[in-house]
Specification:
The protein is mostly helical and 242 residues long. Helices cover 67% and strands 0% of the residues. Helix 4 (100-123) packs antiparallel against helix 5.
Amino acid sequence: MWNTLIFSVIGVIFGLVLGSFYNVLIYRIPKGISLINPKRSFCPVCKHQLSWKDNIPILSYVVLGGKCRYCGTKISPIYPLIEGSTAALFLLAIFLTQNIWNVFSLWILFSGGIIVTVIDLQTMMIPDFAVIMTAIGGVLWAIVNGQLLLSFISAGIGFGIFLIIHLVSKQGMGFGDVEYFAALALYLVPFSLIWAILIASLSAIIFSLPMLITRKANRKTRVPFGPFLLLGVSIAIFIPWR
C-alpha cells in the first residue's frame, strides 16, 4: 500500500512537471518556435520571460489569479488544465496496471495523446514527434505483454484501413490520422481494432452533432479525429472486443 501511495505521489508530481513542459511544446511547435531559444517560457503577449515562481504547475496560475504578472493579460485556463490532466492520467495509469513497465508505456500513450488532442483541436494537425512517442510506448507495451507480433499486425492493418479512408475521402481524413492510428494500434491485438474504431467514430459523431444541428458544420466539415482515436484505443486496451 505504501509503495503504491509513494509511486502515486511521484506520478502526480511527474505529471504536473511534464504537463508544464507539454504546454511549451503545444504552444511552440505549431508556431515553429524553437524549443531551445528562448530557453525559458515567456508571456505570449508582452514577451517577458517568466521566472521560476511563474512556472509552478497550477499553483502559479492560482496565485497570479490567471493573469500575467508583468502585463496583466489573462492566461488561458488551458495551461493548468493540461498540467492537471497529465497528472490525473498518470495517476490513473498506476491504478490500471500493476506492472511498472506498463505504467510507463501508458504514461507515454497519455503524454502523446494530450499533445495530439490539444494541437489537433487547435490546428487540425498531428505532430510527427507525438506519433513517434506513441509508437515507442506501443512497442514497449507489446514487449511487456508478449504480443509484439500481434501488435505489429494490428499497426499494419490499422495503417492500411485508414490509408484507404484517407485516399477515398479526398482529404476528409488527414494523413496524420493515418500515422497516429497505426502508432496507437501497437497497443492492441487485431480483434480490438474494430472496437477502437467504433468507439472513436461514435464519439466523433457525438462531438459533431451540436455543430450539425446548429448548421455550423456540414458533412464535408473536417473533424479533429486524433482525440477520438486516442479515446477509442484507450478503452479498447482495457475493455477488449469479446
